[in-house]
Fold this protein.
Amino acid sequence: MQGVAYHNCDPYFTVYRIPAWRARLYKFMSVEIWGNLPSTIQRKLSSTYARLYTKPFSKWIIKPYVRHFYSDENYLEGFIPPDGKREFECFQDFFIRKFKTIPKNEAPWVWPCEGLLCDENKIGQMSTSKVKNDLRTVHTIFGVAPDSIPADYTFTNVFLHNKNYHRIHSPIEGTITRIQHMPGDLVVLRPWIYKQNPSLPAFRNERYNIDITDGNGRTWFMSIVGGPAVGTIELGEGISLGKKVNKLEELALFYLGSTCCMAAPISPRVHSKNSFVEVGATY
């Protein structure tokens, strides 16, 4: 590993465990109550909530927030505000912070984001999920036909907590061969309330799907999934169909709350389910 050192971005990281009864309650509220609101109302309420974090007063949250979640008192020195700003003017600026220097890694495959690896399995071993009385396969997440992703591909889902870095980067060098926007709900993403099906929100939430084909002709399927309070999912500058992307080139960013799913031709070599992954770490 060369270049900028990786921060221990989540010193308080644990696999969240809550009582089963509380998980069932949260799931009911997320899926059966919030999830049954019309998506237009979900987006309006989410947008209203997200705007609070763009107000100047919200910048005063940043320092205590960083002190609470990060043991490194110099954590923010590794990042810069977005959009050419000289300082973080609101909490949203912190949320979409940028690396001063993108991490470097000689490995050919890297993690595209930072967060909890809450789900990992072979595509062929994944069961269906029931969404609004419809049974859906994992291919639904990526918006492709059931035979489009080989059964021996590995599915991963990384949950990005509000404290995590919220830009998504390319895991490989390759060519973008598909970009698809899928409208949907904005149910709660937190995987620990869904127990045996932590990826349930990815089957139904609004998302951008991006396929990247590597130099060996293998397609890497990515799904960038929004959740409650997401103002928008924004594609990176110049990201378009047919573009050749470098490893760790920025693909997209979230304005609050998100998860990133991937179907890859190889399995993670270092990390396993319920471990913490970082942008640029070896996949």
